[in-house]
Write a structure and sequence with these properties.
The protein is built from seven helices and 14 strands. With 255 residues, the chain is of the alpha/beta class. This is Phosphoribosyl 1,2-cyclic phosphodiesterase.
């Protein structure tokens, strides 16, 4: 079991429009961050895509990914779902819609915003099905668990995927650590974790919170993601403990 980090940046990416690199060294290629999304893959080659980021087409091309077996959404904020239309080509050689999953609130908002994806339109077939994550625990060769995480005034869904005796957790866009999160993430092999910046933020985890979650959940290894222009890759690598990896676009890691 492994994951591929398609994107590791915050909602505006790095650099921001205007070629604004902030504190990130523009000569370090791992500082160039597209919007967050990951692929989780089991030993049989089945793949789950988590979030359809605004940069999805470029990410799939860069990582030579032509198909996935299911899609999960953490929530419906633009940087996590507005690349959904790039999944159209994955419907072409399928006899049925590509399966998608999210919380009841996320599903409702996605159906409202992208009705043509889930209902078909003007003679075009339905591209995706959409189910509440409460309805199943086994998808495309993976078992999974989930937890709703505080994300400022709203929530985001954290996922724990298990296959081949290993576990990978994806926990992005949270602003508080809850007992339910600790229970869901307990002793995971890999925790891919929200880490916007060093200073606290009202809707996202900062560096100390991300490391604290990894410690309290007793995970084997943590990987930082959703980083803004203040988080220079090499500087961060020198700061974090040995069991923490600074994520970057294209990073692949086995559980």
């Amino acid at each position: 079991m492994k994951f591929r980090m398609l994107g590791s940046g915050t909602s505006t990416g790095v650099p921001r429009i205007g070629n604004d690199w902030g504190e990130c060294d523009p000569l370090e290629p791992r500082n160039r961050r597209s919007r967050v999304s990951i692929i989780v893959e089991n030993d049989a080659g089945q793949r789950i895509l988590v979030d359809t980021s605004t940069d999805l087409r470029a990410q799939l091309l860069a990582n030579d990914i032509g198909k996935v077996d299911a899609v999960f959404w953490t929530h419906d904020h633009a940087d996590h779902c507005h690349g959904i239309d790039d999944l159209r080509v994955m419907r072409y050689d399928r006899s049925n819609p590509l399966p998608g999953f999210g919380s009841s609130k996320t599903c409702a908002n996605l159906r409202r915003r992208f009705d043509y994806i889930f209902e078909g339109q003007h003679g075009y077939p339905t591209l995706m099905s959409l189910k509440n994550i409460e309805e199943t625990r086994l998808v495309a060769g993976f078992s999974f668990d989930h937890v709703e995480m505080p994300h400022g005034p709203v929530t985001s869904t954290g996922f724990r995927f298990e296959a081949d005796g290993k576990s990978i957790v994806y926990a992005t866009d949270f602003s508080e650590i809850t007992p339910a999160m600790l229970k869901c993430f307990d002793r995971a092999d890999i925790l891919v974790v929200d880490c916007l910046r060093r200073r606290p933020h009202p809707t996202h985890a900062h560096l100390d919170m991300a490391i604290d979650l990894a410690r309290r959940a007793k995970v084997r290894h943590a990987v930082l993601t959703h980083m803004d222009k203040s988080m220079d890759y090499r500087s961060l690598c020198a700061e974090v403990p040995d069991h923490v990896t600074v994520g970057f676009d294209g990073l692949e890691m086995a559980a």
